C-alpha cells in the first residue's frame, strides 16, 4: 500500500526537470497517484508532455493563470477525463525581473505589484475554485511559499509581499473549503536553483548562506520538497489544514548564527 494509491493529482508549474513541481510529481507518482499536468504556454508544452509521459500520464492541458477562460477550460477538460480530483498542486509564481533586486521602494511599481500578486496569489484562489466541483468528496490543495513572506530577504522584494498574501490565502481557503473535506496547505521551501529562482538577485549567495547557517547545513532538493508534498496531500495528513510546513533544512528557526 502506497501513500497516494487511488488518488488523482493535477500538477501545475512545471517549466522543466529542475522545477519544484517536477519533484512533487515524481514523489506523487512513486506513491501511487495518477497525474495530470498543465503547461503555461505553447513554448513549455513539449517539455511538460515529455515529463508527463515519464510519469505514465497523457493528460497535459494548457493553463495560463492570468486567463480566466483557460482556467475554466482546464477544469472542463479535466472533468471529462476524471470524475473526481483528489489533489491540486499550485506551484506558480511570477514577478517582473526588474522588481527582484536592489532598492525595494525605488524599484517597486504598481504594475509589478499587481502582476506578482495576481499570478502568485490570486491564481491559487482561482484554481481552487475551478477544482472545487471536481473535489466533491474532499481533496487536498497544496501551494509553495518562501521564508521571504515572514522576514525580509534581500532582493526578494515584491515577491515577499505576494507570498505573505499567499500564506493568508491558504488560511482563508482552508477555512472556506474545510467543511467540504478539502484541506489547503503550503510548503515553505528553502532556496532551490530553478528557473524562477534565477530571476532573484544574488541567488547563489542565498544558497551559500543557507548551507552555512541551516541546522542541517545543507540546501534542500526538489525530491525532499516532493516527499513532504506527498505526505501533506495523503490521508496521513487528514488532520492538517491551513498549515505552512517549512521544508528548509531548519533555516527558519535560526535567529542568530554563531560565527557561521
Ligand atoms: P519554476 O520556474 O520551475 O516554476 C515556476 C512555474 O510558474 C513555471 O512552471 C511557470 O510556467 C509557472 N508560471 C508563471 N507564470 C504563470 C502563469 N501566468 N500561468 C501559469 N503558470 C505560470 O520555479 P520553482 O522554483 O519550481 O517555482 C515553483 C514555486 O515554488 C513558486 O511558487 C516559487 O515561488 C516557489 N518557491 C521556490 C523556491 C526556490 O528557491 N526555487 C523556494 C520557495 C518557494
Structure, explained:
The protein has 260 residues and is of the alpha/beta class. The chain is 41% helix and 14% strand. It is built from 8 helices and 7 strands. It has helices at 20-30, 42-54, 68-81, 104-107, 110-131, 158-177, 203-213, 222-232; strands spanning 8-11, 34-39, 60-62, 87-90, 139-145, 182-189, 244-247. Strands 3-2-1-4-5-6-7 form a 7-stranded parallel β-sheet, sandwiched between helices. β1, α1 (20-30) and β2 (34-39) form a beta-alpha-beta unit. The chain starts with 7 loop residues before the first strand and ends in a 13-residue tail after the last strand. The site of nicotinamide-adenine-dinucleotide has 27 residues, from α1 and β5. Residues 13-15, 19-21, 40, 44, 63-66, 91-94, 119, 144-146, 189, 191-192, 194-197 line the site of nicotinamide-adenine-dinucleotide (NAD).
